[in-house]
Design goal:
Chain lengths: 371, 329, 511
């Protein structure tokens, strides 16, 4: 059936490595193209002109002092989870369990606030919360890591399933600790005493979160690039055989790296529960565990580039939220726009890595005749 | 006492979306594509069907034609899922993008797409509750054989389902047969195991990957349609479909890439999914949340056990998750 | 003969990969009833040229005529439709499928899948040419030569009458090679056109009617095999005359350095890989290890370096003062910590010895990154080492920050060997150290090994080219099916004798 002679009219080959500005330029073009498409989609759905749409988005993200702080806060929480996933991904361990690890950390934090709140000094409580959250997140990542190290159990699915186990655990405790009785949810914990709430530092209540995450970014960048551990992670990720060859214990590195990854997710849980919402629900992680995968990948696992990619995705979701509010659209609109932007960026990688040659059929046969 | 006769039909009904998703993902993975966008595809399949039937119900009013009532949602659902499949293939096969990231982006997009248009329809229909009901369409989809009700427990367990349930099983059996006993199946397995080999043997990798991934997405999309039209009685409410898409992906590993095994496995999962309704827990609502963990815990346990007994035949397709580029060197 | 239309005529074929020109203006004729040897060094573009006939690559420019008509080969399927079949060096077989399933893969036959009919035809082909294949056997259960047979049957099953074999003898014993050559002669008698890609002159002389030579991607010329000799072909292939002699200094005062006794090893899936192996590795000497690939060479070296769990036996390291240390049960890190300096150049350079995506400096750091007491790595010493290796071994690289996977095979090997020698080892183990290297790089490696030998290092050289083993090594240990079938003196060894030893006792290992 398909016997037509198919001279490859379009021929694809690998490019040599592009300078960094060229590759980021291509990505920028992709983002701009995505924004144009998003504007068209929005126009179709709202009937408004694109200028109006953009200014609404910009307003939604940067319009007021509060909005700017929300943007910073959301960006840093997303960044925090992305940083957590980075060492695991560099090791080619597909940790899709960020969501569950955040919940585990958040749940531990909430448990401390409820059970110990107003009973021990606030400073001690915050210290206990921190240790518990980080520990819980680490344990949640440790379980799949051990199985991966021992039996090479598929980690993508294991971590994914751990998300739902964590969700159900949170649902369970939401009923155990429900306030008031029968509400099925916990409500703001220690609202009157603010016991266990992370203190306000600097100019705004979100400043502490942003600061912690920025410090973490630098630490993670240094860890990956200059530490012996970071070097081992890279070697294991690139080739387990090479790691064995130089005497790196692959199991140890997998477990250690996932402890770190889970611990940082647990920290994100602490920041969410102890530092932001002061309560826990099954949706508190808000899909960050998944979005962070894309943030980390878009930034090519470079912690500093992740600042930009997490800002970009947060900007879109905040901007789209504003559009939905202003134009009375459903809030899932943000997910659609985010999806479109992601598709464009994912697609743009092709133009960074490959080049396309268009071959003119006639030219080929002519050169044949000459010979 | 445990009421098996009411438990089994509910477990089966619960299992059908999983079975569609699992069959679709299995054949997709056989071509070497790990499509983590299946949850999104199922949402898109469901909402496309809903949009189709909503528009038809609105325009036809009382004069609904039995054939069109079923055909329009089905066609819309298949088209919507097909477009998602084409998008995935375009990005991963033609543009060679990372499969994990593309899949996750498709899930974000698809779930958002479903909830957005679901929400918009709810608003359009001006209903009081945050859901949209397509009762006429649903009646057509969930119609079972007329004499089923007269056959007692037998009818209840085997004949009480809408036609999409039987179609799911038929598709799974067909997929199983095609994979094992046909030329196409043989070549598809070769593509997933070793694309370079298949390519050298003159098999078009691109064609196979596109074809199976799109078919897989369409099958998975039907799972979404079944959920809304039959299981949920034509009621769309946002996020109701939940995590079934992810469970379907987990089932693929659970069934070691065999669609015929997935029929029973998905029923087992369906049972686990609703088991909490059947375990007497009295006033203790909290324990129900613990029981809801069962399907996930069982998946984890099976995953660990199967990884401990590492058999050659039970491995995923060797090139799963990797894109193929002929001139890679 | 010369008047007939050639089966294949390639005209002015050019193919580039990025900056690298693999073929430039190549002209080549292939005729029926003739075996053509395509001769050239590694990297001279032989395989690329043939890949354009088999549809894997598409030429940038130039044209191909099949039986005098211009042909446009865009895919392997189209190549088959022209009757062209290629047996690749790396077998293109699907491991989890059976021989029959692999053979019919990609065929467009009418009707339902009928494996029984296919199996019958496979048996017919086998009896015609004298192969032995079990159509129902899974590929992962097969030996290398069985896999190659499946590849050849696959091509014949498709009715190919132009056969291209890419270095078919690299993985075969001399006896298996003879059998293959008999089959090829049968095919020639059958009127088929056969191309054999090789860089081994002896094979060219033995099997071919005509030889075409490529050098650095360009066509150098062609000769009738009966009218030429090895020296002339070498000159054409290399471009200038090289001495084929490898230096072999006399070992000075060899003393046992490592003693292996009754070593037995099973792989993780329980298959016996080594049985009761005993030998010693001596200072100031090169010990060659010969054997068909997969006879336990890999397991042997990995047992010594602590990478392979051992079932029974002992591996003892003997210090200069005569004190002995047991190495079994130690991982590479413990061996290093004990002060035993083993250097190991593994077969899989980019998959084991180096990290392909890392640059030269970071690869130099693999052995030394644990040094120092901080949690941070110190990149200064590895950078200095990288500089030195690049300079002294003349590694061709755009810079120290280039990922090593972008370097050519010879340069990758220089980086690896350079790093391993830098640790001042007392034992140097090498596996297939010159595989895929051009002649100049190969000699660089031989010289490095000899230098180490002169310094008193105990060197092990696992090789596949018997000519090199016989010229380079002081003693040669021959492995067959995981057993030692003998240890011979390199100075007096005879190639055929070693070839026979390589197959001796081969069957017993699988009882």
């Amino acid at each position: 059936m398909n016997n037509t002679s198919n001279t490859p009219l379009i021929h694809i080959s690998k490019k040599k490595e592009l300078p960094w500005y060229a590759s980021w330029g291509i990505r920028l073009v992709a983002i701009l193209a995505a924004i144009v498409l998003c504007a068209i989609v929005t126009m179709v759905l709202t009937g408004d002109n694109p200028g109006q749409v953009f200014s609404t988005m910009l307003y939604g993200a940067f319009g007021t002092r509060r909005k700017r702080w929300v943007l910073a806060q959301e960006t840093s929480l997303l960044l925090c989870v992305s940083l957590a996933l980075t060492p695991a991904f560099r090791m080619r361990f597909w940790n899709l369990g960020g969501e569950g690890q955040i919940l585990a950390g958040g749940l531990a934090c909430a448990a401390c606030m409820i059970l110990l709140g107003n009973k021990i000094p606030n400073a001690a409580l915050i210290a206990v919360m921190t240790v518990a959250s980080i520990g819980a997140g680490a344990v949640w990542a440790l379980i799949p890591a051990i199985c991966k190290a021992k039996w090479n159990t598929n980690e993508t699915l294991f971590t994914l399933m751990m998300n739902y186990v964590a969700t159900q655990l949170v649902a369970y405790f939401s009923i155990i600790w429900e306030v008031p009785k029968g509400a099925g949810q916990i409500g703001i914990i220690n609202q009157s005493t603010e016991s266990g709430w992370l203190p306000q530092v600097g100019p705004h209540k979100y400043f502490l979160n942003v600061l912690i995450v920025l410090i973490l970014t630098v630490v993670m960048a240094v860890y990956m690039k200059y530490s012996k551990h970071g070097y081992e992670v890279l070697v294991v990720g690139e080739s387990e055989n090479t790691a064995r060859y130089v005497g790196i214990s692959v199991k140890k590195v997998i477990i250690r790296t996932l402890l770190l990854s889970g611990a940082i997710c647990g920290l994100a849980g602490l920041l969410l529960v102890g530092g932001t919402h002061h309560t826990i629900t099954t949706t508190v992680a808000g899909g960050r565990g998944f979005t962070a995968v894309m943030v980390a990948w878009l930034a090519k696992f470079n912690p500093f580039a992740m600042i930009a990619s997490s800002l970009l995705l947060t900007f879109f979701s905040q901007g789209a939220n504003e559009i939905s509010t202003v134009f009375g659209l459903n809030h899932s609109f943000g997910d659609i726009l985010t999806g479109i932007v992601l598709f464009f960026i994912i697609g743009s990688e092709f133009f960074i890595q490959y080049k396309i040659h268009f071959r003119k059929k006639s030219a080929v046969s002519e050169s044949g005749k000459e010979a | 006492m445990f009421d098996l006769i009411s438990f089994i039909p509910r477990a089966v009904a619960q299992s059908i979306p999983l079975l569609y998703g699992c069959t679709g993902e299995t054949i997709t993975e056989k071509s070497g594509n790990l499509n983590l966008g299946i949850p999104g595809v199922m949402y898109v399949g469901a909402i496309s069907g809903v949009i189709g039937s909503f528009l038809y119900e609105q325009s036809a009013g009382d004069q609904m034609n039995g054939f069109l009532t079923i055909f329009i949602p089905m066609a819309c659902c298949l088209l919507g899922s097909l477009l998602m499949g084409l998008l995935y293939c375009f990005l991963t096969v033609t543009m060679r993008a990372n499969q994990n990231v593309t899949g996750l982006a498709m899930t974000t997009f698809g779930v958002g797409f479903g909830n957005f248009f679901g929400g918009s329809l709810i608003k359009l229909s001006g209903s009081e509750v945050p859901s949209i009901a397509l009762s006429a369409t649903s009646r057509a989809f969930s119609r079972s054989l007329p004499f089923a009700a007269n056959l007692g427990w037998f009818g209840k367990i085997f004949l009480s389902y809408g036609f999409l349930a039987y179609l799911a099983i038929a598709i799974a059996l067909t997929a199983s047969y095609v994979l094992k006993h046909t030329r196409t199946g043989l070549q598809l397995r070769a593509v997933g195991e070793s694309p370079a080999t298949a390519d050298a043997a003159g098999i078009s990798i691109t064609k196979y990957k596109y074809f199976t991934t799109c078919i897989g997405c369409m099958i998975a999309g039907l799972g979404g349609l079944y959920y809304v039209m039959d299981y949920a009685c034509g009621v769309w409410s946002n996020d109701a479909f939940g995590d079934r898409g992810w469970l379907a992906i987990a089932l693929v590993i659970f069934t070691i890439w065999r669609p015929n095994v997935s029929i029973l496995a998905s029923m087992l999962f369906g049972g686990l999914y609703i088991l909490y309704l059947y375990i007497p827990s009295g006033m203790n609502l909290s324990m129900k949340e613990i029981y809801k963990m069962f399907p996930y815990l069982v998946t984890i346990i099976v995953l660990v056990i199967s990884s401990m007994r590492n058999k050659r035949e039970n491995q995923p397709p060797a090139s799963l998750g990797l894109n193929y580029f002929r001139e890679d060197r | 003969m010369d008047s007939q239309i050639p089966a294949v005529r390639m005209q002015n074929i050019t193919k580039t990969f990025g900056k690298v020109t693999a073929n430039k203006d190549v002209n080549l004729d292939i005729r029926r009833g003739e075996i053509l040897a395509l001769l050239g060094e590694n990297g001279s573009g032989k395989t690329t040229l043939m890949n354009m006939l088999s549809g894997i690559y598409y030429p940038d420019s130039g044209s191909i005529y099949i039986d005098g008509k211009e042909a446009d080969i865009g895919s392997p399927r189209e190549a088959f439709s022209y009757g062209i079949g290629m047996i690749h060096q790396h077998f293109k077989l699907v491991d989890v499928l059976t021989a029959a399933e692999n053979i019919i893969l990609g065929l467009k036959e009418e009707g339902r899948l009928n494996l029984d009919a296919a199996e019958k035809r496979i048996r017919e082909i086998c009896s015609t040419y004298g192969f032995e294949v079990d159509p129902k056997q899974k590929i992962y259960d097969m030996s290398v030569s069985q896999k190659q047979t499946v590849e050849i049957v696959k091509v014949l099953y498709r009715g190919a009458d132009i056969l291209i074999l890419d270095e078919p003898t690299a993985v075969l014993t001399p006896q298996e090679t003879e059998r293959l050559f008999d089959v090829l002669r049968n095919m020639r008698a059958d009127g088929k056109a056969v191309v054999i890609i090789t860089h081994k002159l002896r094979e060219v002389e033995e099997i071919s009617d005509r030889v075409a030579v490529l050098r650095k991607g360009e066509y150098v010329g062609e000769l009738k095999t009966s009218e030429t000799n090895a020296q002339e072909m070498t000159d054409m292939m290399v471009g200038h005359a090289v001495s084929l002699n490898i230096e072999r200094p006399e070992p000075k005062d060899p003393k046992p350095r490592i003693e292996v006794k009754n070593l037995s090893v099973r792989s993780s899936d329980g298959i016996r890989k080594l049985t009761d192996v005993s030998f010693d590795i001596r200072t100031g000497e090169i010990l060659g290890i010969a054997g068909i690939s997969g006879s336990g060479q890999k397991e042997l070296l990995e047992s010594v370096t602590g990478l392979q769990p051992v079932e029974s036996g002992s591996i003892t390291y003997i210090e200069d003062d005569g004190s002995r240390r047991e190495l079994i049960g130690m991982d590479p890190r413990h061996i290093q910590a004990m002060g035993v300096s083993l250097a190991f150049v593994p077969e899989d350079r980019l998959g084991m010895g180096l990290v392909g995506s890392m640059n030269i400096t970071d690869n130099m750091m693999l052995r030394s990154y644990r040094g120092g007491h901080t949690v941070f790595t110190n990149r200064k010493p590895p950078k200095a080492l990288a500089d030195r290796v690049v300079r002294e071994l003349e590694v061709v690289t755009p810079g120290l920050t280039t990922p090593v996977q972008r370097l050519s095979g010879g340069n990758v090997q220089k980086v690896l060997v350079g790093r391993e020698i830098a640790s001042a080892p007392t034992v140097l183990l090498t596996a297939y150290a010159v595989r895929g290297l051009d002649i100049n790089s190969s000699y660089t490696i031989y010289n490095l090994l000899n230098e180490q030998k002169k310094e008193g290092v105990a060197v092990v050289y696992v090789g596949e080219d018997l000519d090199v083993l016989i010229e380079l090594c002081d003693r040669i240990l021959v492995l067959s099916g995981g057993r030692v079938s003998g240890i011979v003196d390199g100075r007096t060894a005879d190639k055929n004798e070693i070839g026979l030893m390589m197959t001796k006792a081969g069957g017993e290992a699988h009882e």
